[in-house]
Amino acid sequence: xxRKIVVAIDGPAGSGKSTTARLLAKKLGYIYIDTGAMYRxxxxxxxxxxxxxxxxxxxxxxxxxSINFENDAGVLKIYLNSxxxxxxxxxxxxxxxxxxxxxxxxxxxxxxxxxRKLGEDGGVVMDGRDIGTVVFPDAELKIYLVAxxxxxxxxxxxxxxxxxxxxxFEEVRKQIVERDIIDSTRQHSPxxxxxxxxxxxxxxxxxxxxxxxxYKLALQKINxx
Length: 225
Ligand code: DC
Fold this sequence. Notes:
Layout: E1 6-10, H1 17-28, E2 31-34, H2 35-48, H3 55-61, E3 67-72, E4 75-80, E5 83-84, H4 92-102, H5 105-119, E6 124-128, H6 131-135, E7 141-146, H7 149-162, H8 169-185, E8 198-201, H9 207-223
Parallel strand pairs: 1-6, 1-7, 2-6, 7-8
Antiparallel strand pairs: 3-4, 4-5
The structure holds 2'-deoxycytidine-5'-monophosphate.
C-alpha cells in the first residue's frame, strides 16, 4: 500500500485554497483540515467574552478552548467546545477580527501544536498561511496558490452573496486588502511562500482545473515514494 503524504496548501484569502484542499482530500481519500477555521474558532470564543484585544487576556482564554472537526457527508464541520460553530465562524464580525487574533504568538503555538497532531500520520490536506513553512516544513507536497486581487474579491463576493450577505465589491476589497497586510507583515509566521512550494496562479483556472493540477502533482509524489 502506498504511504499517505501531507499536502500543504497556503496562499492569501480568496486564492482558492479551501475549495482546492477540500476537493483534493476527497479525491485522495484524505482528511481535510481547514486551519483558518481554527483561528476563526478562537476569535469567536474571544468575541463572545466581550474582552479587549489584549495578548495576555487572549492567552489566558486558550486552556478553555477545545476545537474538533467532523466530516458530515463531505461537509467539514467545526466544533468549539462541542458546539457546532461551522456557520458562526464565517460572520463578518469574526472575519474582521481574525487577522489580529491570529497574529498573537500564544494563539499560533496553541493551534500549530494541534495541527501537527492532526497531520502526524499523513493522509491529510491542510490549508492555511504557514502550513508549508511552519506547521509541516517537511510536507511531501507544498502548494502556494495565488490569484489577482480582482479575482479574489469576485470569488469572496460571490460566496458571500450566495449566503445572502449584502456586501459591495468595495467592502470586500477593503477586507481582503487589510487581511493581506496583517497576514503577511505580522511578526510570527507571516504568510510566505515556502522555498520548495509549487506556485499556481488560479486567476484564470476553473475549480476543476486547479484541483486537477494539484491532484496530478499529489499522485506523482505518492507514486514516487
Ligand atoms: O483562511 P481563512 O480566511 O479562513 O483564515 C482566517 C484567518 O486566519 C486569516 O486572516 C489568517 C489566519 N490564518 C493564519 O494565520 N494561519 C493559518 N494557517 C490559517 C489562517
